[in-house]
Each structure stands twice: as C-alpha cells, then as structure tokens.
Task: structure prediction
Amino acid sequence: MSAVEEMSSQEGANQLADVVVRFAGDSGDGMQLTGSNFTEATALYGNDLATFPDFPAEIRAPAGATFGVSAFQIYFGSDEVSTAGDQVDVLIAMNPAALITNLKDLVPGGLIVVDVDAFTDKNMTRAGYTASPIEDGSLDAYRVLPIEISKQVLEAVKPYGLSHKFAVRCKNMWTLGLVMWLFDRDRTVTIENLEKKFANKPDIAQANIAALNSGHAYGETAELPTGVEVYSVPKAQVAPGLYRNTTGSDALAYGLIAGGQLANLPITFASYPITPASSLLHTLSQNKEFNVVTFQAEDEIAAVCAAIGASFAGSLGVTSSSGPGISLKGEAISLASATELPLVIVNTQRGGPSTGLPTKTEQSDLNQAMFGRHGDTMLPVISSSTSVDCFDVAIEACRLAVQFMTPVILLSDGYMANASEPWLVPDIHDYEPFPVTFEENPDGFTPANRDEETLARVWAKPGTPGLEHRIGGIEKSFETGDISYEPENHQKMTDVRKDKIDGIARYIPEQKVATGETSGKLAVVGWGSTYGAIHQAVKRCRQVKMDVSHIHIRYLNPFPTNLGELLAGYDKVLIPEMNTGQLVNVIRSKYLIDAQPLNKISGQPFKISEVENAIKSLLEA
Amino acid sequence: MNAPVENLTAKDFASDQEVRWCPGCGDYAILKTIQKTMPELGVARENQVFVSGIGCSSRFPYYMNTYGFHTIHGRAPSIATGVKLANPELDVWVVTGDGDGLSIGGNHLMHLLRRNVDLQLLLFNNEIYGLTKGQYSPTSKVGTRSPSTPDGSVDMPLRPCVFALGAGARFVARTIDTEAKHMGPVLQRAHAHKGTSFVEIYQNCPVYNDGIFDQIKEKKTAADTRLVLEHGKPLTFGADNEKGIRLNAQTLMLEVVTIGEDGVTEDDIVVHDETNKILAQMLAGLKLPEFPEPIGVIYCEATAPSYTDDVYQQRLVVREQKGEADLNALLRTGHTWTVS
Result:
C-alpha cells in the first residue's frame, strides 16, 4: 500500500512517516531545478532526506521523447533516510513520455500529477501510447490528478508579458508550488533562489514566482479528490547542529580545499571535462580565493601531467575524471608512483565500458583502480560511501598522498556525486592537521632519502638552494636516486614501493562494523555508494531478528589490518556491488573465503529491497 | 628571479652523471652551449628546472646540475605547465625532440604555445627516432628509408617552426647544434622573452640520420644554404651577400634573387622584421633546395602576457572581491538550518 493510500485510509490522520516523490519531464522542463528547490525546502523543514537526480546524456533531446526524460527523486521522512527510496509514492509527470517511463516505479495506489495539456496526440504517439492513459482506465490502480498545468501557468504569468515560449517554461515552478502545498513546504527559499537566478531578468523571476504561488494556491482552493490534501511528514530526529545540503561533488571539492589547508600546501587541480566528474572542476574554479589553482587542460593526459608537475614544484597536484579518462591517465599515474610524488586522482565512476552510460552510476572501476596500470604500480585506493562522506575521504586522500609520497585513487561515483543530502556542517578546526615539511638541508641529501618508518621519499622542491636534483621514470638507485639498471636494485626498489603501500595499513583505522556485531551468520560487505541501501536493508532485517551485520570498506588498498580476521568471524559474506563482482574477487583471493556476490549493473543504485531479499535468501538457505 | 648569482661557470651546471649519448651526437654540443650560457642568464641554479619527455634529447635534464624531471613520452609541456602553475617564479626549460614534441606530444606542444606559458622549449630536430633505433619521424623528409619504412616514408613532414607559429607561438627561433656562437645569443633571447619561447635546434644523429644538415652546417656550402636572420637587416646570403630574398608582389611569395642581376637592387631585398608574423610564417617555411634555411629569431612578439601571469592576476582580483578565504565560512554559505 502506498504511503499516500495508507494515510487517506486512516480517517483524519494526515501524517506520513516518509514519502518518495519523483519529478519527471522533458530534459528541457527544468526537473532538476524543481527537485533541488524542493530538496532545499524539505531540508529546511527538518526532514531527513536523500535524492537521486537521474538525467539523460542528451542535453536537449527532442521534446516528448522517452529517451529525453529527466527525473529527480527525493525520499524524505521523519526517520533516518539513507537512500533515494525503492518505490515512488508521488509521481509528477510533465508529459506522456515521463509517465510511461516512470510508472513502473510507482507504488500501487500512488499519486500521479499529470499536465493534461501535454497529453496531445503527438506527444502520446511519440511516447508509445495508442490511447490516452488518463482516460482509458490504465491508471486505475493509481490516484490520478490530471491538471491543465500549461493553461494555469499561462494565466498566472500573463501580467508579465512573456512570449508563449518563456511563459510555458514556468510550468515546472507551478508544479513545484502544488507539491509544496501538498507537503506543507515553505516557498521562501525558492522565491529567493528565483530572484537570484534571474537577477538580470526580473520579469522572468516574477513570472516564475507567480507560477509557483499559483500552483500553491491551486492546491489550497481547487476541489481536489478525497485524500489529496496537505500531508505532514514530521521532522526527523537528527543530531543537533548547523546543517546544509550538499552533493558529493561539492563535498569532495571542499574536502580537497580542506586537505590542502591541513597539509599546509597549495592545491593545483588539473582536469579535463567529462561527465559526471566536471562539477568538481566547476566548484573549485569558483573558489579561487583559497589556495587553489585550477587548470582545464587540453586532455586527460595533460591534466594528470600538470598535476604531477605541480607536485614536483611543491603543490599538491590533484586530477579528476571518470573511468575512460582515468584510463588515459594511467601511464602518468605510474610516473608519479615511480618518482614517488604525491598526487590525488578522483574517479567519479559511471557506467562503462567506453562511453557506456555517462550520466548513470556504476562501481565498475575498482579493478582499474587496483590493477589498471603497467608494471608493478601499487597505489592506495579509498572510496567514499555517501555524498557527505566525500568531504572526509577527500581529506584522507590528501593525507595519504603527502604522508606517503604516492598517488592516491579516490573512488566516487555518479550517484553520490550528484545526489544531495543534509550535512551536519563540520568545523575544519576539528580535523588533525598533517603539515608537510619540505627538505631544506643539503647535508647528506639525495632525492632517494626516505623516512624509515613510512618509507616515504623526501620531498625537496625546486627553488631550494643546494638540493638541485633530477628525478624521472627510469629506475633509480635505492641509495642515490641516480639512474640504475642493476638487477638487485630493481628488486629492492620494487619491494620498497610495495612495502610502502602495504605499510599504509598501519596508518589507517581498523575496519569497524557499521551496523551489527563483529561476528555472526552473515556480513554484508560493501564499498562506495551502496552504503545507504545496504544500511537500510540490514537495519530492516535486524528488526525482524535476523543475524546480519553491515561492514562498509573505505580503505580498499591496502585493506585495514583486521579485515581478514573480522570477515572470518561470519558464516557467510555477501558483497553487493554495482559491477560484475570486483571487490568480491579481491576478497576471495586475498582472504580465501567464500564471499558471495550480489551484482546490479543497470546504471541505477540498489534498491533496499534487492539487498534485503538477498540477505533473506542467504539466511534462509 | 634575476637575483644576484655567485660567479658560476659552465662547470657548475654540469651534473655528476656520466653523459651517455652516442659518440658524435649533436646533443653533446648543445649540452655544452647550454651549460655555458646558463651562468650568463643571472638565474640561481636552484630556480632552474629542466623538464623533458622521452627520447635521446630527453635525457638532457640528467646532465644539468639544476632541478630536473625526466617524464614520459610527449608530456613534458604538460608537466612543465604544472610546474609553472605551482610556482611561476621558477625558470623552466623544456627539452624535447621531433618525435617527442611533434608526434606523441604534438597536442600538448600546440596548447603550450597557444597558452603562452612562460618557459623556454628547445626542440632538438634530427628528423629521426634515435632511441627506438631509427624509425622515421614526423619531420623526416619524404622517402626516408628506415626500419619501419624500408621503401621510403610517404607522409609529408612537419616544419617545426611553421607548426609553432600556427599554434600561436610568440617567440620562434632556429639554431644549429654545433654553432655555439649562434646558439648562445638565441638562447639568451629565448630566455629574455616572456611567454613560451620555441627554439628549434638542427641536431645531427650520427647513427641513424647522419649528415642530414651537412649542407647547412659545412663551411663550403653554408653561405648559400643558410639565411642568417637579424632584425632590421636585409635578408641576404651567399659568399658575398650577393643573393637575397624578395617578395614577389604578384604571387605574394618569397623568391631568391641576385643583386645586380635583372635590375635587382639592395632596395628590393626584404628587411627582416621579427615582429611581422606574416613574414615569419613565410620564412619558417623556406627550405632547401629552393631556398636557404633561416636561422636566428624568426618571430618575436613581446607584448602578450604569459599564461601564469593572467591566472594569478585573476586570482588576485577574486581575492580582492571576496576577501580573506575562510573554509568554515564557505561551508556555511547558502541555505543552512539549525537543529537544536
């Protein structure tokens, strides 16, 4: 039963614990903007929430095409929310294509708001309907609210004298106004956003605001069917403090700035545009007042090389891309490994191989991160698990890079990069600084000198008198750093590079159990953005007394020292991944345990129920 | 950056590494001239950085007692751009070859020149791949026989200086490996220029492409095969400077004429103007046997700001507008709410 149905079946009670709303329309309909404004209002209202922006690769697909449908889903509630929700309770469908492509996710009894003005014969044919779904009874399982939205909008914005084209564009705000009425959200922030966005076009700003207010007023005054009334979703109980919303991409950008500050180093961020990684470059470029220089290079290789050059010169070089771009950077990453320079490589993963699904999410670059280079190039690999977690993981990537003089791969993905969630804003002063000390003393200096404990090579930057030296990709003498082709030396250097990376395990936290016990019948082991779905699935199963725990791995190479022992304490291990089974193979080969895969490669995040069902079938087997 | 430097000599710029080019390689002569020129530039050793890619020429940084980075094939311009972005005060030299700079790294070289990053790029052109044992390169003449082109290469070679000008280079010069007296001043000019200075050096590979520049290098032929460029001087050549370059007004092309023949006078000869890009583009394309090959500064446009100057200027403006950077404040911008 849908949340909406449940509510309306209970006489007089208009409270919902949680609800999933999806806005869907043409890629030019402004659904992402609508969703982000609704998200902001919902956060301010005090619900916990998670979002899932899902848009096509085409910038402006032909109007009414099914492949051009852009959707924004938000799950909000009075309890902890950690995924964007399995099933949709309220679907806003701006045209037939949006309806036909999204209906399958709507829970029976769910509410559909449709713009009947967009249900023209042409649009319906293009979407694949032979008869109007609003009239032919095919939506009988749902509660349908057909509204002449376009007509309402044109009326509302009439005083502003916009052309028909611009006037119709306000219909997303009209719809947002209606949904805000439905869930009792405050419109103030959206109005402020519109005034800011269209500061140079006050007519358009005012028209959009009028449309927003008109949609809201429609909800208040129109005779709507029974059960369609203002729903209240009580505030969530969350830790006290100051909150904001953040996407993973923004949190990662801020984390890199923070990492630079904690290392007491300038950041040189060099990147080449690629979906879905570009927003990192955008955010950092907008914050030039910090000690960050951004560089849009001519290609992926130039980007990573500029970052390496910057690290050689005493900055912390950072580069960012998605899988295909990381492939191009491979050779240079090995140079950074061979020359033992710090470098942070951010991979915002997307569906592959090749161009694959550029706007959809996947976790299929773990093998690439672990093994995707020539020679014995071993690197630390870490991953963030939620949008908010991207901040801390970015800081950690900076720390490992400078403390161990090594490239570090940070795996994010398209889902958490774009999705936003509330963030208890951290205080940068609460983080332990890891200031870098450059070598300045010429006595006994060679570029091969290294820290006995961490095995990190010395960092002497150009401009330092008396430390002039050469580094390069050719194998170097362990003693002097000069070119060396000696067989024993290559063995020793390979060993030392490996030992250095393996040794990082001593400088990272032990693996903790996210939910549950340190031993038992089943551990669900995840990494990356599957966190929310696994967390909720395990929580639900534990509520019905199933013996299952959740372990989420941030440090993928090297693993925390206790991981093998921890996993051995469970009868079974299940590893859900948005790939064909990459972590599961590493775990199986490293710890010789019979870990079971659960794979989803559809470009969509796991649903809670998918993980829940897998847990049940393993425990009931 | 031009801080007082103690009395350095060429020796101070020689590293302790054994030089490992083939006997007779033109790179030795270039290395010697560069080591000799460095003390004259007024830059402290610790502020000099040599960056190279892969190839024979790219071993260069190992032999310079400065900071040096021997990187990967074709990417030295990108690495050097990163060095300058991180520290614009450093004096950066990129050493590359015709394969490294124009084949695998052509894209980066183009963008380096277009951006005008303030550094010197020396392209050792020997028209062959040396380190991989003699395959033809993007500057090899049509018909070059090599292990990969046993019947002769069929593709058109690039003219490095033409490429550089096409990519927007503001300083383009050419010199010859063994001509220390010519190369020294060219390097000084390149160093003095603000922005990317592109210097092509004709370099002999005695093993795989021996003698390809002999006509230009040898005393008995040099007078007729070289066009020595000097700003403000007429473009004459020949044993008695009896020949010159004239602009044919009909074809808008340069042509070789002899002064005193067919009514040609000294006034007909083009006077070299290194600030004239159209002339530079014509000169850069001149080649044997139809023309003598120009050496010297082909083009110098001194007015353009360098890339890193602009990058840091932009940052300065942003800082003035936004005030002191405060990460905690940034995290708290936009819409926030308090849960108590």
